[in-house]
Amino acid sequence: MLAVDRQREIGVKVVREGSVRVDNLAELFSVARETIRRDLAKLEEEGRVKRSHGGAVRIASSDYASTFSERRIINIEEKRAIASEAIRFVEEGDSIILDASTTTWQMAKLLPDIPMTVLTNSIKVIVELVRCKNIHVIGTGGEFSGSYLAFVGSRAEQAILGYHVNKVFMSCSGCDLEYSLSDTNELQAELKRKMIQSADSSYLLVDHSKIGTRNLINIAKVDVFDYMVIDKKLSKKDSELLNKKNVEVVVSG
Q: CA distances (Å), 94 to each of 80, 135, 201, in order?
């Protein structure tokens, strides 16, 4: 593995878990501890982490894990499976919202070319749907975020609230079933709230690694969603909790 790829994965791991240990990383990547120390020094220099005794910790204001290029490589097979399951809920004539998550991007890749409307703030989704001649694509516009390859801000929020759709499909960076969904970015979180408000039915697409994690910005309680589409690694305990909250769990193949 190249150093840049290893550093990227370490950066994601720090933001996801809050802290990492040199010894554990050395074992995980099968490299010397000194190599990991150099990686952490580089990440600290770039403002991604803060080194601590024996490892590194997350920087409170860091939005590093939320960049599209970082998120798209995490649990990619699970995301593809979730996306494949999610498109089963899309019907001809639907109007839907797809957020700027990497899972809905995978979903856009699989959408059948049938008459429907897709409203999105994601550049990646828009580009993916160019191939579909029967899908009416509406972009929100707004302030462009290079980290997310998406539009955010007040103009994007106004655009979302200007439409009423049948279904919204979205993801998040953290999903604490007892608490709420969360994100690392305020603008993204606020736009997701508007998306939920604009839809009759809401579908949360998350892989198991996000369950039990919390990030800085709260989005909404889990029970505002009608369905959660997740991979096979959801625990029985969490599945039962979701059922109590009247959220229908759909497990991807």
A: 22, 10, 11
